[in-house]
Amino acid sequence: MTDEQLLRYSRHILLQELGIEGQDKILQGHALVIGAGGLGSPVALYLGSAGVGHITLVDPDSVDATNLQRQIAHTLDRIGQFKVDSALEAIQAINPDVRVSAIAERADASLLDRLVAQADVVLDCCDNFATRQAVNRACMQHKKPLVSGAAIRMDGQISVFDPRQDSSPCYACVFPPEPAPPEIRCATMGVFAPLVGIVGTMQAAEALKILSGIGSSLAGRLAMLDARRMVWSDMRVGRNPQCPVCAPLRAN
Predict the structure, then answer these.
(1) Of 130, 175, 157, which is closest to residue 218 (Cα–Cα)?
(2) Residues 24-39 pLDDT 10s
(3) How far apart are CA 209 and CA 200, in angstroms?
(4) Residue 155 region, left (φ>0) first, then alpha (ψ -120 to 50), else beta?
(5) CB within 10 Å: which end of the chain, N or C, has fewer?
(6) pTM for the structure as a whole
(7) Residue 90: helix, strand or coil by DSSP?
């Protein structure tokens, strides 16, 4: 670690739980972020500011005026840009040492199979159920920890699905792929602006803990936020032995 890095990350290094060793793991880490919108914005900014060595952003969409109410990585002058390119600019304005790969493509099975294999941690910040299931399948296949967040209206949730832990469920254990629920989108249902910041920031925290090897993750727990009353509830979630996604993989 250079003198400049020691200074930049000094507040992390001062933490007894993290120190130089933990920060060095963060600097060597590779995070794959699926979605560069409401959740992906705080995720990208905090992972970048914390010094994650390589951040890969995947999102096919462009910045729109309606995004600016909550997607804090984007600005008025970047309307029309791909969100991944806008987020790349935002990260590099904070920390130019971070390597950012911006992929303006839909996260289909083929792309995920390639990208998940290269990552140390995956963050699901997308807004549709089919992509969430595809991300989960790729993470289970490649045994990569998945930090999953969601936010709609004034309700948020976050959990970690970690195939490296025998007791950890996968996303499909908790949210079965069939039957698929009706899609609920911000464009039709709305979302409270700070809610995506709260959930996205927690996703970044979980990812940094995983990369640095500190603390315990949310694996096996689903944390849910009712922002109307600002009340968190915590539910234990377990593996489904009949899960169509992870049960066959765990049997091998």
Answers:
(1) 157
(2) 999 999 999 999 999 9
(3) 14
(4) beta
(5) C
(6) 0.95
(7) helix
